[in-house]
Amino acid sequence: MKFSKTLITASLFLSTVAFADGHDNGNHNGNGSPAERTYAVTITNITYGQVFTPVLVATHTRAARFFELGEAPSPELADLAEGGATGGLQAVLDGLPEFVMDTNTSGLTPDGNPLINPGESVTVYITGNRDYNRLSLAGMLLPTNDTFVAIDSMPLPRKYSASMALAYDAGSEENDELCANIPGPQCMGSPFSEGLAEGFVHISRGISGEGDLAASDYDWRNPVARVTVRLMD
Questions:
Q1: What is the dihedral of CA 72, 75, 76, 79, to 10 degrees?
Q2: Which of 98, 137, 160, 222 is the most buried (most CB within 10 A)?
Q3: CA pair distance 140, 170, nearest whole angstrom
Q4: pLDDT tens digits, the chain, 233 residues: what are they?
Q5: How many Å apart are CA 161 and CA 146, to the nearest integer?
Q6: Are the CB atoms for 179 and 11 separated by under 8 Å?
Q7: What's the confidence (pLDDT) of residue 21?
């Protein structure tokens, strides 16, 4: 997989950690001027049958993006989309303090589950300021081959905002919908693949029902999540 042109290049890429290994509270890179503000980011799964893996959230400048539609995904984004692994992308972001202020990954839902089931919400706390005034997030949809929910570079609100998040296909794995190639509790398959499929990030087509997954159980129509951002202080 070639590295995405839109994610700022870091000199060293660290290995990813599968979502089942636990969440990482991340790095806090802001220089303290202007004043840091804390935001509560609440992600609600509004699909009928899809589950979200833990969601990575970041605050950053306008220069940073998780992905660009129509471009190849970074290896770290591909790992998130194929296996729910946030560690690699989070490590890249944490290594860019001139562009990224804070990162955090969602923890447990109120029922103690790291996965976000349909109708459930999870809240992530993150800091930003006048310079690091953009927010992005991403998490895998299960069961899919390489689909992820995301918001890319939205402005932080003055007090409160509510947005709908879409599902994207990373273009890094063939959408065969075979459980052997899909991780998570529904399929228990392999989380990662070699090479690229479509080769570019695009709006997900959902579940067709051609493999092991019934469209009546797992298909969706965008949007897939409601995201609220609230200034806490």
A1: 100
A2: 137
A3: 10
A4: 333 434 443 322 222 333 333 444 455 554 546 899 999 999 999 999 999 999 999 999 999 999 999 999 999 999 999 999 999 999 999 999 999 999 999 999 888 999 999 999 999 999 999 999 999 999 999 999 999 999 999 999 999 999 999 999 999 999 999 999 999 999 999 998 876 789 999 999 999 999 999 999 999 999 999 999 999 97
A5: 28
A6: no
A7: 38
> What are the sequence ranges of the domains in the chain?
23-231
DSSP state of 139: E
* C-alpha to C-alpha distance for 164 and 225, rounded to whole angstroms: 6
Phi, psi of 80 (to 5 degrees): -65, -45
What is the residue type of 34?
A: P
Cα dihedral value 132, 138, 38, 120, nearest 10: 160
What the block records as the tokens of 135 is 């927010």
The residue type found at 210 is E
CA distances from 233 to 36, 103, 111, 193 (A): 9, 18, 27, 43
With respect to CATH, is domain 23-231 assigned 2.60.40.2130? yes
CA distances to 31, 44, 137, 159, 200 from 54, in Å: 27, 12, 10, 25, 23
Which backbone phi and psi does 218 adopt, to 5 degrees? -125, -10
User: What is the value of pTM for the model shown?
Assistant: 0.87
Q: Are 116 and 38 in contact (CB under 8 A)?
A: no
DSSP 54: P
Query: Would you tell me how many other CB atoms lie within 10 Å of the CB of residue 178?
Result: 16
